[in-house]
């Protein structure tokens, strides 16, 4: 009998890509004539493109630019696809959980070629049961929909799952779905912010969680 569902965010959790997103978004905004501070972009990473642009440019903006900004980010970030770095221990963490009969499901705002590049970086496809991508949901995190879809894909109830992420949006999505959450500090978000958003446990990064798995909600 499976232990439950181990649901994972990818960017900033399994792959060291948050700051690549920050730079790509900064340049995309600059090309459209907007000066957006990088710390503000960093705090918005993890949202879907539409929600991220909403948060950073506000509701009163010229929405005719949105598509061009999103496309520019996609092109700019795509230049990194052949060298996206996974965090140390990320693949081993997924394989270890699968070996303990956890069903590993990815829940990410990435899709298409970007998601394929991220999966190549993590290099643990044999441990991944399924993926809930941005193509599969109407609303991204902090909506609970990606987590709820991951639960459906794994065929388990919320009480049988643990969600691992690195942003406040991840923690809020897990809380709204009624799922326990583990926060990793590898995405650059402060511990206090993650705990305030509902994290049940906090670890430094994937390698730290792997080393201390028996002290975590996966025990």
Automatic annotation (TrEMBL):
This is HAD family hydrolase. GO terms for molecular function: hydrolase activity. PANTHER family: BLL8046 PROTEIN (PTHR43434:SF16), PHOSPHOGLYCOLATE PHOSPHATASE (PTHR43434). Keywords: Hydrolase. InterPro entries: HAD-like_hydrolase_sf (IPR050155), HAD-like_sf (IPR036412), HAD-SF_hydro_IA (IPR006439), HAD_sf (IPR023214), PGP-like_dom2 (IPR023198). Signal peptide: none annotated. The keyword Hydrolase applies. Its EC number is 3.-.-.-. The keyword rRNA-binding does not apply. It comes from Streptomyces stephensoniae.
């Amino acid at each position: 009998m499976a232990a439950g569902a181990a649901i994972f965010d990818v960017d900033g959790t399994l792959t060291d890509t948050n700051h690549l997103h920050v730079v790509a978004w900064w340049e995309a905004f600059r090309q459209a004539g907007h000066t957006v501070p990088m710390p503000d972009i960093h705090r918005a990473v993890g949202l879907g493109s539409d929600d991220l642009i909403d948060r950073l440019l506000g509701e009163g903006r010229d929405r005719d630019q949105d598509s061009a900004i999103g496309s520019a980010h996609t092109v700019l970030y795509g230049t990194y696809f052949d060298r996206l770095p996974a965090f140390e221990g990320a693949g081993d963490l997924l394989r270890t959980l699968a070996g303990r009969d956890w069903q590993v499901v990815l829940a990410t705002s990435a899709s298409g070629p970007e998601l394929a590049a991220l999966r190549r970086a993590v290099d643990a496809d044999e441990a991944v049961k399924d993926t809930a991508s941005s193509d599969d949901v109407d609303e991204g995190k902090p909506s609970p929909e990606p987590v709820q879809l991951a639960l459906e894909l794994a065929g388990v109830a919320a009480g049988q799952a643990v969600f691992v992420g690195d942003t406040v949006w991840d923690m809020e999505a897990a809380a709204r779905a009624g799922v326990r959450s583990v926060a990793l500090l590898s995405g650059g978000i402060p511990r206090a912010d993650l705990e305030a958003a509902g994290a049940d446990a906090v670890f430094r990064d994937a390698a730290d969680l792997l080393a201390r798995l028996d002290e975590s909600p996966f025990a």
